[in-house]
Amino acid sequence: MARNNLTFRVACNRLLDDLAQQEPGATLGSEITLGTRVGASRTTIRAVLTHLAEAGVVRWEGRAKTLLRRPVAADYFGSRQTESPAERLERGFMSLILNGLLPPGSALNESWLARRFEVPVATVRTFLVRFEPFGLIEKQPNRSWLLKGFTRDFAAEMFEMRDLIEMRAIRAVLDAPQGGAIHRALHDMERRHLDLVARPEAIEDAFPALDAAFHRFVCGAADNRFFDDFARRISIIVHYHYQWNKQDEAARNRAALSEHLVVIRAALDGDRAAAERAFAEHLRTARRNLMASVIWE
Fold first, then answer.
1. What are the residue boundaries of the GntR C-terminal domain, all occurrences included (predicted)?
2. The CATH number of domain 6-79 is 1.10.10.10
């Protein structure tokens, strides 16, 4: 199986996450067992094992499979290498929003988006349809869509649901074992935040994307497809920032960056109560800021 195959790369990263929970010298299961754990076929697992054996992560001799060493960051395929067409479209669409390229009333053409992000038109249509029930986007003739805003009531309902989902998700982060995939991602999230703290001039432009990544990480830790889908939609909705009053944006971003770090450090220190309190306060602050800063129609 070619290593440029998306299924192969995703399965490889998932198996690496699984192996990271085990001690070197551990005996691995059969291909069927491993495939069940990472959601891949036996053929794909055999290709992944061959790759990991070549990388010195495992020893595979006949039916015997042994973990030689714990995976390191260099063993993983990067996020761009494991994203699906839908994820590539979402990332590109978010980039348009974060760079202010979609002002109020923008008309979006399905074919144009498909060409720009090199995805099928059907992928574009499926992506846009997700926002139609919220009244944030309206179907127009000739495969076009009109971007619209949202109301105070919509924002209040959105944050109520966000509180329910993300408070449940942060507990999954805190429940994760030391040294596992979530814990490693938490360290990486801390590094990314500290990098931005060291570059205050970049906060205004770079923080929105980091904020979206932080909340996506939290929701993803719950391993619940509905949580993850909610996080994807909320990232785009919240950062549909042309409606925001930009006057205090820099101060808001610096404060939110600091709040993220308080949560991350408490989680890394194993202080569950402090992490939950800090995250709940961060959600309350985010709600107050949005309600005060949006220029309502």
1. 157-285
2. yes
